[in-house]
Amino acid sequence: MPLFLILVNTFTAVLVDKGIFAKNLLTDILIFLGHPFSALIIAALLAVYFLRRDIKSLISKNSFVRYCLYLFFFNILVFWFSPDTYARYLFVHATLLFPVLVYLNHIHEEENTWQYKLVKYGLLVMAILVVISPVYYLSFKLTRELEFSFLKAGVLFILSSVLFLLLIRLKNQRVIILVALLLVARIGYNWFIIPSHEKTNDTTICRDQAVAAGKGTMGKELKLYRRTPMVTHLQYYITRERMQPLEWTYDLSDTSAYYVIYEPGFEGPEYVKYYDVKMNKRNISLSVVKFLPE
Questions:
Q1: Which of 149, 40, 166, 14 is CA-nearest to residue 96?
Q2: What is the pLDDT of residues 198-243, one digit of tens each?
Q3: Do 192 and 236 lie in a common domain?
Q4: Are 255 and 214 in a shared domain?
Q5: Virtual CA dihedral for 77, 78, 81, 82, nearest 10 degrees?
Q6: Same domain, 215 and 186
Q7: What is the tally of structural domains in the chain?
């Protein structure tokens, strides 16, 4: 019974952490089983190599492959039952799958199985997506407005096109060429996705608003009302700009000082608002105000 309760609690926690509860139990179970393997997309594609009747005997024949597979399975369990798992925690375990997948790929290639053909064409489709990705980046105003966006897209398109042609012609060098294509895809991600995400994500908005409040109150007294919720990063950015520590207080009588308050439910003197500072991803905002003389 305790084990059953642990499984139920973990199952629920994973779904809550992912922010979704599906409309039916089957979908919920699929989400749970797919966590955290959804982060290992390429490994998921190559997992079709395990779909054969003699897979157990093939794995048993090679002690090193069997050892790597056991290591992967028993290590991944810890992350499988951890709702707060991030993808970067899982990538290190993917290396344990490489020798297993290379071993199975060699067997499937020799037998020219449907699994091998599926993987081959699947990787070909991925290569095509890398080639057309620069056009996709330029279709959005946010990424199109980035510095040198058309030049960067042109460089990515030329590089990926040349590598795609080499992939078609040099069959014996496909692995190296695929690695190069993945590198080009990563460069495109760094050039377009990261900068655009940096402009719009909640962390950037919180930081910019805190910096603006810090600069706007520089040289003047700024106090934090004790009944105000606060997070560390806001205090850091405000303090960094003002170059002086913030003071927590219950006293709201100083009409010359700025105060940081949380407006919902605030009961105190009337005030004039000067800045809104977003606190976190839940759209909770604090206000920098000055109280009016009575």
A1: 40
A2: 777 777 778 888 888 888 888 888 888 888 887 777 888 888 888 8
A3: no
A4: yes
A5: -150
A6: no
A7: 2
